[in-house]
């Protein structure tokens, strides 16, 4: 029999006070959660995917009082235990995913104010995340004999590909200078920018020397930028939770509702893009990335008449489907799983009794066995090539 987890007096009091007030406890949910094993397992898989540099999107749907908020809080706590950073906020008329009057920026600001880590589960963790990144940069600068700002620039090079990446780096360097000089005002200004609390570019430029702020149009891109940053700061990834989505449905303006729904669709499409990971080989890494870039820009180079029976994607579909490409070593769990699939599929051509292949076949984890229509298998199933 497994041992029951110990309940600390502080957690006990927090649980009882929250339940007596009719709200979801912020901590100790594992002590009162029952059922929902399937749902928890699915979300844990998503958390593991995020920790392995992947992405996922989920919608938790249920009737009023079904326990959606409770479930989301439980998932957040699991994410914290797995060394992710979490941010969360409730959607409301003045906090939306898409807006033009500051409501989207308000949602971002509220979510980042609620940033939590394993050591700061109650929110307000942004300063500690930034401090952790700056401290690592200082250590590296001392080891390499470089200026701290040079190390910051080098470590944030990958963020330059993101919208707002340059200003993000500028703000972090301003935070470092404020920390070094004991200037609390500069540090506060930097954190205020990172939280999206500046409403005008002029004010931000005067305080930090940046040209842009996090505004309504930049909220989703800023979330992606933040997700990339927390990984650079040493965390496993970022989990974003938006609750009370019913408030988008309640918006009086049909145009505002549709714009928010379209933004949600953009997020779903973005997350579900095909992000390619291949095994690192110094001799061919850049060649493979070049093939990927050409495929994304120009589509297939095959003769259209000969390849038509395979229903290949069009140039436009490739551009919309392909996301990013990167290489990793064999230590990546993603590559280890991919190798298991590839080896099993290759081996089954001469060894149909191979156990791994039979398991993948019986659980319908290979597309050929998930498709019912033989014609669809020809078009969408696994293709074997000989070069």
Question: Pairing-aware structural class of the strands and helices?
Answer: mainly alpha
Average pLDDT number: 84
Global shape: globular
The proportion of residues in beta strands is 5-15%
Report the sheet with the most strands, covering strand number, pairing sense and barrel closure: 2 strands, parallel
Give unreliable regions as ranges. none
How does this structure look, described?
Helices cover 55% and strands 6% of the residues. The protein has 387 residues and is mainly α. It has a two-stranded parallel sheet. Strands 3-4 form a two-stranded parallel sheet. The mean pLDDT is 84.
Write the layout of secondary structure elements.
Layout: H1 9-21, H2 37-51, H3 68-81, E1 85-90, H4 103-113, H5 126-144, H6 148-155, H7 165-181, H8 184-194, H9 201-208, H10 219-232, E2 238-243, H11 246-249, H12 254-271, E3 274-279, H13 285-298, H14 304-307, H15 315-321, E4 322-328, H16 333-347, H17 355-362, H18 367-370, H19 374-380
Parallel strand pairs: 1-2, 3-4
Helix pairs in contact: 2-3, 5-6, 6-7, 7-8, 13-15
């Amino acid at each position: 029999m497994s041992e029951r987890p110990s309940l600390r007096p502080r957690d006990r009091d927090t649980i009882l006070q929250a339940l007596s007030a009719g709200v979801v406890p912020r901590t100790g949910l594992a002590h009162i959660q029952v059922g929902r094993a399937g749902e928890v397992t699915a979300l844990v898989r998503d958390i593991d995917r995020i920790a392995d540099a992947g992405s996922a999107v989920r919608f938790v749907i249920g009737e009023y009082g079904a326990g959606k908020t409770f479930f989301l809080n439980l998932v957040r706590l699991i994410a914290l235990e797995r060394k992710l950073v979490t941010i969360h906020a409730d959607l409301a008329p003045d906090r939306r995913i898409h807006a033009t009057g500051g409501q989207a920026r308000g949602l971002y600001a509220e979510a980042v104010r609620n940033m939590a880590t394993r050591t700061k589960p109650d929110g307000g963790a942004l300063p500690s995340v930034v401090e952790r990144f700056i401290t690592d940069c200082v250590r590296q600068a001392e080891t390499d004999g470089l200026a701290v700002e040079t190390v910051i620039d080098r470590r944030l090079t990958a963020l330059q590909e993101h919208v707002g990446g340059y200003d993000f780096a500028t703000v972090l360097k301003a935070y470092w200078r404020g920390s070094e000089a004991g200037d609390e005002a500069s540090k506060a200004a930097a954190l205020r920018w990172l939280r999206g609390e500046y409403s005008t570019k002029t004010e931000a430029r005067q305080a930090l020397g940046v040209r842009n702020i996090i505004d309504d149009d930049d909220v989703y891109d800023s979330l992606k930028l933040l997700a990339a940053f927390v990984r650079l700061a040493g965390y496993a990834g970022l989990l974003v939770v938006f609750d009370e989505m019913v408030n988008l449905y309640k918006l009086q303006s049909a145009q505002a509702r549709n714009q928010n729904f379209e933004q949600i669709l953009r997020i779903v499409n973005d997350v579900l893009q095909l992000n390619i990971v291949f095994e690192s080989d110094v001799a061919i890494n850049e060649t493979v990335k070049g093939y990927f870039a050409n495929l994304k820009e120009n589509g297939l180079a095959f003769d259209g008449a000969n390849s038509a029976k395979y229903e290949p994607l069009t140039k436009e579909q490739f551009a919309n489907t392909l996301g990013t490409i990167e290489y990793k070593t064999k230590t990546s769990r993603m590559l280890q799983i991919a190798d298991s699939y590839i080896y099993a599929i290759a081996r089954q051509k001469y060894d149909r009794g191979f156990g791994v292949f039979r398991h993948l076949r019986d659980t319908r984890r290979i597309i050929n066995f998930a498709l019912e229509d033989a014609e669809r298998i020809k078009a969408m199933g696994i293709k074997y090539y000989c070069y």
